[in-house]
Write a structure and sequence with these properties.
The protein is of the alpha+beta class. It has three domains: 167 residues, no CATH class; 69 residues, Arc Repressor Mutant, subunit A; 90 residues, no CATH class. The protein contains 17 helices and eleven strands. The longest helix is centred in the middle third of the chain and has 18 residues. It is globular and about 60 Å long.
Length: 360
Amino acid sequence: MDSHQVSAARLISQGLIDSARSDNVTAQSVVRDLGCVQAQALGGALVSIALRTGTSVAAVREAMDSGHIIRTWTQRGTIHLAAAADLGWILGLTGQRTLKAVAKRREVFGIDDAMVDAAAQLAEEAIRARGPLTRQELLDAFAPLQAGKEYGHERYLITTLALRNIIAQGPMVEGKDDMKYVLTDQWIPNPVELDAEAALHEWMRRYVLSHGPVTIDDAARWTGLPKTPVRKAIAAAVADGEIIEVSIEDREHYQSPELDDRLHETQSQANELLLLPGFDEIILGYKDRSATLDPAHEKLVVPGGNGMFKNTLIDGTKARATWKRSPRKTGPRLIIEPFDNQAVDYDRAESVAASHPAFA
């Protein structure tokens, strides 16, 4: 398997190209199978899910309101979508690690354990009395703390409660790409409970099956966890026959046992043109994303290295351009900025946009 095939295989693993998509694929199953979905730009995350389910963003929003998917800071200090029932064991792997990593930042803003405990009580009282709250409504409930209104005060109060698995974002705010805050013990009545070893095994199994081929470095970067336990969990999944180890260009990779067959069957679809939102897992899900995005073009996708990823146009398994919606009510739907020396079929891209969930 060469780099072109690696990118095609990853697109298949992630459910972005596969004519055999099951009717049983739902927003919940997509999020669960991917392990987590990066969601700083919530609207883009909803589009990512819609592309994998073959449904509309409206249908994904309805699924979010069902209570099966939550949004919170699961790993790397970054907000993700996750299957609600799995939140407890995911945070069991990452929550305390992230809290320790930002301890000094909390101190800078004067947020100590007593303040966090008081905030937890205020949040619980407000949400139990009034139901899910918007961010501002939650911050209003914290007013008795007199913690200050700097962004850092607000951010670290909320994220600390989230990392302690006290609150998460649950239903959508009507008409907006935003979600309301809920109490996890109230919103998630039947959480799955796994010990640390079983939890990491399950997380790595899902990650490899939904992102493969991947390396240990990819998996460690994605989880934000040390390589040693990640390697051990992946080795256990290999020993159980759930995933397999393959050598690609003399480097160890891991993937689904069926992936090579699926790649052979779906090879013709690898040349599909895809319009992906900026934080899609095909770009964000790997430490080494060069199979899909040439390193020479990475600064065009993340200008200034500021962590904000532009939408990408994928054609022939490679990122060829960035794109955005045209503000004009007539004419082309897309504004496309091709990478250096990359040819883009504008008519084909417009044809894809005509039925794309981001434009519905």
